[in-house]
Amino acid sequence: MSERDTHTRAGYLPFTPAGQDAATEILAELRETTPVFFSPELDSWVVTRHEDADRVLRDSTAFSSSGALGSPADPQVAERLAHGRVTDGATLIGWDDPEHARMRAMLAQAFTPARARSLQPVIRERTERLLDSFASQDRVDVLNDIALPIALDTVFDLIGVPEALRADCFRWSTDWGRLHGAVLEGLDQTEQLVLARSAVRLHETMSELLAARQDTPQDDLLSAVLAEQAAAAEPLSDIEVVALFPGLVFAGHETAANLVANTLWLMLTHHTGTDTLGAAVEEAARLESPFSATARTTKCPVRIGEVDLPAGERVSVHFGSANRDRRVYNKPDAFIPTRPNLKSHLAFGRGPHFCIGSSLAHVEVTTILEALLTRWPDMALADQPTRAGHFLIRGFQSLNIWPTGRPTETGHDHRRM
Ligand code: HEM
Question: What residue owns the CA closest to ligand 1's atom 12?
Answer without folding.
Answer: 349
